[in-house]
Structures are given as structure tokens and as C-alpha cells.
Write a structure and sequence with these properties.
globular; mainly alpha
Length: 191
């Protein structure tokens, strides 16, 4: 008789190719195909010391993590770390294998709050990503996606007002900061 461990497919070793586990039409595949994120290294070079301290996490990975959080509406760095740990497409996009350790949420926070404090580097990188997306016709600016509650209204369908609503990376970073402060208060931690 086989033991329960031998019957459990979750305990089997498998040889897999991560690339084959991510659907061909996945949004992150489309983004990866058209957007070259290597510009990030040059953009953040002044904020890193190349010959002092321990090796840093590749800034492309760091900013791609934040990009995933922004793109998928993940409002906390702690939750972002957890989502990346379990999402194969996120790992693939970041260049992480199934066994690679996901950068800790505190690393994201430290970089955001210390290394890049009082800079516009997040906005500059976000703007460049949007510019590249527009250049590759991935963004048209005519579709509005919103996270909202829909209520049935008694309204004139022939009368409407166009509005441009812009949410910047600054707003997303404020959301991350608020989540950190809530977590600290909940756990009795100091700044």
C-alpha cells in the first residue's frame, strides 16, 4: 500500500518550464513583449553604489513588482509579496523561478521610503512605461477602466459629460504608505 505522501500529487517532483505555464494571451506576456524595462537601470543608477555594501535586488525586478501592484490594484507591499509568491505569471514576468525567493515587502518599502525619497523616479519610470505602451499602441486613451459600484440610475442616455480622470503613481504610492502605517499601528510598531 502506498503512503499518503506518495499518493499526494502535491508532493511529487516535476520538471516544468515556467514559460509553458503562462498563457500566451496573458497581459503580462503582451507587456513583456513590447516594453523594454532595461531603461530603469540607467534611470536609477545615481541612487545605487556599485562597490559598497551587499548586492542589491535588480532595480528592474523592484520596479516591475511595483508595476504589478499598480496594474492589478494590490494595495499593500505585504500583499504584493504574497501574490507574487503564488502567481506563476507574476514570477515569470519578474524573471523568478518557482524556487527563487520573492523580494521581501520590507525591501520594496525601504527603497520607496528611503532610497527614492524626495525624488520623482517612480513617476518618471511610470511615465516612460506609459509612453512605451502608447508607442506600441497598447494604450489608446479612449477606454476608462474603473473600480466602482454600479447603481441603476434614471438618467438621460443621450446627455452625458466627458471627464478625464487621471490617477498617478503618486496616488498609488500614497496608498502603499497608508497600508504600511495601518499595519504598524495594528502591530504596535514605531516608524
Amino acid at each position: 500500500m502506498l503512503s499518503s505522501k506518495e499518493n499526494n500529487p502535491q508532493m511529487h517532483y516535476e520538471f516544468v518550464c515556467l514559460d509553458e505555464l503562462v498563457p500566451e494571451d496573458h497581459l503580462l506576456r503582451v507587456i513583456q513583449k513590447h516594453i523594454d524595462f532595461s531603461f530603469i537601470r540607467e534611470k536609477v543608477r545615481p541612487y545605487y553604489c556599485e562597490d559598497n555594501g551587499r548586492p542589491s535586488i535588480d532595480p528592474v525586478v523592484l520596479f516591475k513588482m511595483i508595476f504589478i501592484g499598480y496594474l492589478y490594484g494590490i494595495r499593500s507591499e505585504r500583499q504584493l509579496e504574497k501574490e507574487i509568491q503564488t502567481n506563476i505569471a507574476y514570477r515569470w514576468f519578474l524573471g523568478l523561478s518557482l524556487t527563487d525567493r520573492v523580494p521581501d515587502h520590507t525591501t520594496i518599502s525601504w527603497n520607496r521610503r528611503t532610497r527614492f525619497k524626495n525624488t520623482d523616479v517612480f513617476q518618471e519610470i511610470f511615465d516612460e512605461i506609459v509612453r512605451l505602451a502608447i508607442q506600441h499602441r497598447m494604450v489608446g486613451g479612449r477606454v476608462l477602466i474603473s473600480d466602482s459600484t454600479h447603481l441603476k440610475a434614471n438618467a438621460n442616455k443621450r446627455k452625458f459629460k466627458k471627464q478625464v480622470i487621471e490617477k498617478t503613481s503618486h496616488a498609488y504610492l500614497k496608498d502603499l504608505e497608508a497600508a504600511i502605517n495601518e499595519d504598524r499601528e495594528a502591530h504596535g510598531k514605531k516608524d
